[in-house]
Write a structure and sequence with these properties.
The chain has a single domain, classed as Glutaredoxin, CATH 3.40.30.10. Helix content is about 45%, strand content about 15%.
């Protein structure tokens, strides 16, 4: 995939802040900067995630995460996310529904949602493993639980018994409680959590959310919707037009 290098960017307060001292004032300028500036020194943009093998027993990238969209989509995006991340919550609630409608459902992008443990958020490991246990039962149940995790993020982060809380939510959504308990007891999905975390580390992902455009590199932060629109449109055009 021939995609121009993409610089790391972050979203803070009400402004878009990047690796330069001042961010462009318009979304079109921000998109141009994302596509043309050299990569950040601490993040590699030349690595194809499918080529990584962080260690013995580590699952391949194709075995990890939750995929949405057509396997034949010309653009592949991996969203590295921590369930405890506030900016991830903002992206999922405010921006992702439009991206799903305009880019994923239309066959332009195949999207991989890859939860990992950044080490920055309370209860994230337990909740991520619990979400994986629900995903093992059914993707639909996982989707419903994911919505609850974002909507009530503050509640589970403050909980003294996060596993019991997520179990209650999952069962209320239709999950099998006994299967959930066995999964958590046996740590049968922990290898997926550990492998996802290993891949994030190998790629140099240090902040969440990070969006890895396969063949292009990382874009960091919950950027405004219009920036994502223009960015993904330009990447799609580069890929499909050669």
């Amino acid at each position: 995939m021939r995609v121009k290098r993409i610089v790391c960017m972050t979203f803070a307060a009400a402004a878009v802040l990047g690796c330069a001292e001042e961010a462009p004032s318009r979304s079109t300028d921000t998109t141009r900067a994302l596509l043309s500036q050299p990569r950040a020194a601490d993040v590699s943009t030349s690595v194809d995630p499918s080529s990584l093998s962080p260690g013995d027993g580590t699952l391949t990238i194709d075995q990890l995460g939750m995929n949405a969209g057509s396997r034949d989509a010309p653009v592949k995006v991996i969203e590295f996310v921590d369930f405890g991340c506030g900016f991830c919550r903002r992206f999922q609630l405010e921006t992702f529904p439009t991206i799903r409608t305009e880019f994923i459902a239309t066959g332009m992008i195949e999207w991989k949602f890859l939860p990992f443990i950044s080490g920055s958020f309370t209860n994230s490991l337990v909740v991520t493993e619990a979400a994986e246990c629900v995903f093992a039962q059914h993707a639909r149940l996982f989707g419903a639980l994911e919505e609850r995790l974002w909507a009530d993020q503050a509640e589970w982060k403050a909980s003294g018994e996060p596993e019991a809380l997520i179990r209650r939510w999952a069962v209320g959504l239709g999950a099998d409680g006994e299967a959930f308990d066995a999964c958590m007891r046996d740590d049968s999905r922990l290898d997926r959590v550990n492998s996802s975390t290993a891949f994030a580390s190998e790629l140099g992902v240090r902040s969440t959310p990070t969006f890895w455009i396969v063949g292009g590199g990382p874009v960091q932060g919950a950027l405004p919707l219009e920036v994502f629109r223009q960015l993904f449109t330009e990447v799609y055009e580069q890929v499909t037009q050669g």
